[in-house]
Amino acid sequence: MFGVQVTSGGLQKFAANKLKVILSSLTNRSFLAVVFGTIMTIAFQSSAATTVLVVEFVNVGLLNLAQSLGIVLGSALGTSIVIQLIAFKILNFALGCIFIGSILYFFVRAKQAKYLGQALVGFGIIFVGMNYMSGATAPLKNYPQVYTIVTQLGSYPVTALIVGIILTTVAQNSTVVMAIIMSLAGQHLLPATAIVPLILGVHTGGTLTALFTSLVTNQMDAKRTAIANTVYKVVTAILAFPFITQFTRLIQFSTGNLERQVANAHLLFAVLMIILFLPLNKIFAKWLVRLLPSRPQYHPRLRLKFIDQSSLEVPTVALAHAFKEIWYVGQYIYTKMVQVMPDAVLASNDEPANRVIQAEEDVDWFYDHISHLLCMLSMKGLTEEQISEKLNAQFIMKEFEYIADTFVSMAGIALKIHREALVMSAKEWDQLAKLYGKIKDNFVRVLEALKQWNVELAVQALREHREISRVQRALQFSILTQTPRDNFKNTDIRNEEKMIYAKIDLINLFYGIDGHLVNIAQVIMEVHGIIEVHGVISDI
Q1: How far apart are the C-alpha atoms of 386 and 101, rounded to whole Å?
Q2: Which domains, from first to last, does the chain contain?
Q3: Which of 166, 460, 479, 484 is found 20 to 30 A from 276 (Cα to Cα)?
Q4: CB-based contacts of 414: which residues, under 8 Å, 6+ apart?
Q5: Three-class SS of residue 387?
Q6: Rounded CA gap, 280 and 58, in Å?
Q7: Can you tell me the distance from the alpha carbon of 190 to that of 236, in angstroms, rounded to the nearest whole number?
């Protein structure tokens, strides 16, 4: 299991960022979609990771549903190829892979070489683990109870099928279960008649985790893809089950090695599934859309729209989703706070200000949940570039959270104005309107820059900050010169003074918001290799 995890991590780092480029040239035809699914599953050692990528590609329009189903079919073939490799008796070669991989990982500076080294180490560990497991299962032959139970699986194919389903569902990795079955077969604990039903169970059980996960997802294409994956394998199992005896003879004819028979059985059913369903993919995709049409569903008031725990399987996808989620939070702040702020100050009641306070609590909810998922992502073994992206995501999310906190302070000033029976006239608001308008425009500019990672918009936001600084200072000076000299003899004068200081506080808070926007713009600029030193913007 550790070897599978290390290999997957290394190959993801080695190739994940190039997948979309490869995809554009491989998925024009259904057959090539199968090829791509096969390659992806070999690389990631995980059909779950393949499914996550497929859903992402469908969502961004790089794939249609029929093509995604082709990739799902290819993922089964990819798993079979991995199992074929595991069936080889190549312990010495595996130890050589560990040796070479260690040299690449520890002594070569090139990042791609390090990632390839990690993958080679993981690949070697898989075979070392297989060798240990084979040795560990050998003494089981000396226990009559164990021997009797395992060997009788061949006489009860339905039981063997169910055992295969349960083992794969619990382990959540069909490759690991297949390695266990191969070890038992290699020690002659598993009869040839039990191999076919067990493999059918493994094929079916490998789809259940993704199916259960898809039931709670908000993405309809994820549900359709997971259901298709399960239907393909269940139907293949149903069609093959009456011919277990014939299939058993076929795999026995292919080789006399029981471990290789296990691998061949898995490959046989993967190929059979592709032959049965690949020609029907487009028809089945249309049927799935009719069976599961997109329709309005009940959703909780607050929910993450893009990133979820399943997307963490592929860090490239998780980071892309995280930035989409963070952009959505920024848009939420703009709609619920920036646009509402004038009403909160000018209204004769507390309702708009309370809406701003509620919105800040919502932003805190988003901040907590996004931060939690990004922390979980840190455990996935990221590349240096991905670590940098994750830190940028956390930084930008924190800046948005600071902005929301600032708006709560402004809402508190609005509530104080209402409690003390003060009224800000439209003319007094006009004094702040120019600064507010510039902050609002810069907020929109930064949001668009974040959405597109547009460095030109980020630079414009930074330059606009200088003009906002000038307006803020001029506005502060203009309002402070209006302060009454006699502060304590007249109630109207005291109220006027309170209003002046309230406006000063609002000006400073508005200016603070733009400071956080500039911080976000600078992150976007740095990603593109642009920095600002002493007011001069230049390439790094």
Answers
A1: 22
A2: 2-291 (no CATH), 309-539 (1.20.58.220)
A3: 166
A4: 344, 345, 347, 350, 352, 353, 356
A5: helix
A6: 19
A7: 23
